[in-house]
Amino acid sequence: MSNPVLVCALRRVDAFRALADVLKRFTQCREKLSRSGSLLQTVMALTPEVTFRQAILFFTDTDFVNGGKRRRPCIPLTLLCFSCSEGESQRCRAESLLTFLQTGAQVLCTVLLIKPGAWSHNLARILRKLHLEKFSVVGMKHTDLEPDVVLGLLSPEVKQDPAVLEAHCTYLTSGTALVLCLQRPNAVKKLMDLLGPEDPKLAQALDPFLWRAQYGVSTVQNGFYGSKSYQIAVRDVKLFFPEGLCCSNCQTLEEEEV
């Protein structure tokens, strides 16, 4: 080939279907791209077996990363071989990549804060829902939120409007909140999918079974706060549970410790 190519190894839940959907949408606008002289050709592996064979051709095990900063590679270091012969090196390389591709979703921690007034009468049902969604509760505490903590939890959009900011701060400091640290594979995204939009009316329109649709009454009193990303989840766990969690240490949290 006369032109260079970019090879990417991508990883996510339901990766093959998700990437195929993205490429399908991209193909729909391909004619527009071709008229501008920047036609982009794409090829994707369609099965795990093809992915494995192609990964061996393009990558070494040290090329892979596993997410946020300070995170170690997902491949166990015991599988790396630095002093093999050429034939053995290829075999060890294949074994390391196969181990990486077979590694399942990591167990992560996230934080669910049940806002004042939302948990006192609904805690049993909420805990039941968490159990059905395969969450493990590895930390739980009552807390009276301080204003500086509340500011750290609110989004930049909320802070831009003084009236909205005051409403959130007044409500969140008006009573005792219940904070849960939850653990399961893909915990952060799963929790956010269950909570739904911060506006309960929008959540109700999307799906009446979303938690904010069931327990929220307004954008301020919407029942729940949940960590929106892995980095925020790590911050929230350290903020609310500095004494530790009632579970074996989570590898991902250990890797994020300063």
> Shape from CA axes?
elongated
Main β sheet profile: 4 strands, antiparallel
Order of helices and strands: HHHHEHEHHHEHHHEHH
- Work out the radius of gyration: 23 Å
Determine and state the CATH class of the largest domain: Alpha Beta
- The number of distinct structural domains comes to 2
How much strand? 5-15%
CATH topology of the largest domain: Alpha-Beta Plaits
- Chain-averaged pLDDT: 78
In DSSP terms, counting alpha (H) and pi (I) runs of 4 or more, how many helices?
Answer: 13
Number of strands: 4
Spatial arrangement of strands, main beta sheet: 2-3-1-4
Q: Which consecutive residue ranges, at least 5 long each, have pLDDT under 50? A: 67-89
| CA distance, first residue to last residue | 46 Å
Percent helix range:
40-55%
The structure class reads alpha+beta
Domain Nucleoside diphosphate kinase-like: 107-248
Protein name: Nucleoside diphosphate kinase-like domain-containing protein
Family: Belongs to the NDK family.
Pfam family, one: NDK
Textual characterization of the structure:
The protein has 13 helices and 4 strands. The N and C termini lie far apart (46 Å). The chain has 2 domains: 13-32 and 39-67 and 96-104, no CATH class; 105-241, Alpha-Beta Plaits (2-Layer Sandwich), CATH 3.30.70.141. The protein has helices spanning 15-28, 30-35, 48-58, 86-102, 123-132, 147-153, 156-159, 162-172, 187-195, 200-206, 211-215, 230-240, 251-256, and strands at residues 107-114, 136-143, 177-185, 224-226. The protein is elongated, with a radius of gyration of 23 Å. A 4-stranded antiparallel beta sheet has the order 2-3-1-4, with helices on both faces. By secondary structure, it is an alpha+beta fold. Residues 67-89 have low confidence and may be disordered.
